[in-house]
Amino acid sequence: MSHAERAVTRAHREEWARVVAAVTRRFGDLDLAEESAAEAFAVAVERWPADGVPPNPGAWLTTTANHKAIDRIRRESKRDEKQKEARVVHDDSPPEPLGVIDDDRLRLIFTCCHPALAVQARLALTLRMVGGLTVPEIARAFLVSENTVGQRITRAKAKVKAARIPYRVPSADDLPARVSGVLTVLFLVFNEGYLATGPDTDPVRQDLTAEAIRLTRLIRSLLPDDGEVAGLLALMLLIEARRPARVSAGGELVPLAEQDRGAWDAELIGEGHRLVRSRLAAAAAGVAPGRYQILAAINAVHTSARDIRDTDWSQVLALYDQLVRVDPSPMVALNRAIAVAELDGPEVALAAVDRLEPVLSGYHAYHVTRADLLRRLGRSRESRVAYDRAIELAGNTAETAYLTRRRDQLG
Amino acid sequence: MQYLVSVIDDKSNPGSTDRQPAISAFNERLIAEGHWVFAGGLADTDAATVVDNRGEQAVFSDGPFVESKEYLAGVWVWEAPDLDVALKLAAEASQVCDRKIEVRPFR
């Protein structure tokens, strides 16, 4: 790849959201912003190899996108609305200082993750407008057709326009609730990357985990004081750190207990631990931690142990007890039971897990946990049934391979 | 920007019947803050008649255009600068009316 090509790729990764956000702020139209940004990058692909990479690629791209937007409005206004042209002619807004531009990207994220949009639409719109992923990339990531993704994005943009969803950072009152919606979207992207579903995808989609981490870092740089943002970033880093040890050479999922801890990414763990420590300090000062911060702390305990036998399970259980108070969902209860098994034995844990049957029986993790507990209790026949059900429900190829081997090892 | 704000009641699980004073007070506020354009409660769906004159002659049929458990009990038209403002008011309206609220922009 030539120097100019590398520069375009890098600018696309780093500046796409900035360019889209800047055009959105000026013209208030997501469609126009996206098309103009895409055109600006197309011009860069053409010009940079010949003219050289501009000293400030972000500014160059924003200016080019703005010109493209004006061209587009002029073309359209010749056809219909004269009014739009008037707006363009009178627009002499000076270039914005950097702080405002960062604020622009934050506004863009909050617009794409507006609670009036369906979660799937928020996901697609955020990946497209903020992440700069193409429609085929998003379709591949979530195993839906390009047509579906295209429609979701088109409809979401149409709703933003028709219902006048504002391009704005929510007010202080609304901020915590709205940030949590943004974090949900980012965690969904991460989870799909970490445990990709579907028979034809890689079991781990590093492009998606990397994108989720990149966007969460962006949110953190924009909202450095938000504890849950820091918590989610720490959580992602600590999970991502284990990725190199998570799938065997044979394409089989390797559970935490059997992972080669030497293969974990020490740098990511270090960064994750530093973030968790800073949140612990805040908690000590009386700021109650939210769900992501507690999950990050649990992962910090796991990544602190040199060996699975070295794991401080009572600490893990104490954190799960704390998590249950914040998030009393059956999934949390299920994960808590795994820690219970380590401390009080598989029998006690199984009783707790069985109580979740009415709500979790359609969920593969429930059957995975039961299968493992029953195996440890020597109840092979029941364990086999649970593995069968887990295999049926699991969507991840590496996980299916692991579960199948486990089942076949039963006596 | 104008929004149609629909109050949705539920036949099998209707909202409280003592909300009129609170709704009146809420309306006063909508007027004072410049959001109020129009409002009206609707008679029961039994009182509705559907007219279809697309064919050779007009056909009148008894009842609402769609039979469902949930039905439209009243409407507002609000003026609001954007959806966030409308949604904030709608959240209050839902409490005041003890009913679900749909917010839909005019084209």
Task: Describe the structure concisely for a colleague.
The complex is a heterodimer of chains A (411) and B (107). Chain A has 20 helices and no strands. Chain A is mostly helical and 411 residues long.
Structural commentary:
Chain A: GO terms for molecular function: DNA binding; sigma factor activity. Chain A: InterPro entries: DUF6596, RNA_pol_sigma-70_dom, RNA_pol_sigma70_r2, RNA_pol_sigma70_r4_t2, RNA_pol_sigma_r2, RNA_pol_sigma_r3/r4-like, TPR-like_helical_dom_sf, WH-like_DNA-bd_sf. Chain A: One of its GO terms (biological process) is DNA-templated transcription initiation. The complex is a heterodimer of chains A (about 400) and B (about 110). Chain A is mostly helical and about 400 residues long. Among the domains of chain A are: about 80 residues, Rna Polymerase Sigma Factor, Chain: A; about 90 residues, no CATH class; about 80 residues, Tetratricopeptide repeat domain (Serine Threonine Protein Phosphatase 5, Tetratricopeptide repeat, Alpha Horseshoe), CATH 1.25.40.10. Helices cover about 70% and strands about 0% of the residues of chain A. The longest helix of chain A has 25 residues. Chain B has one domain: Alpha-Beta Plaits (2-Layer Sandwich). Chain B is about 25% helix and about 35% strand. Chain B is built from two helices and six strands, in the order E-H-E-E-E-E-H-E. The longest helix of chain B has 15 residues. At the A-B interface, loops of A face helix 2 and strand 6 of B.
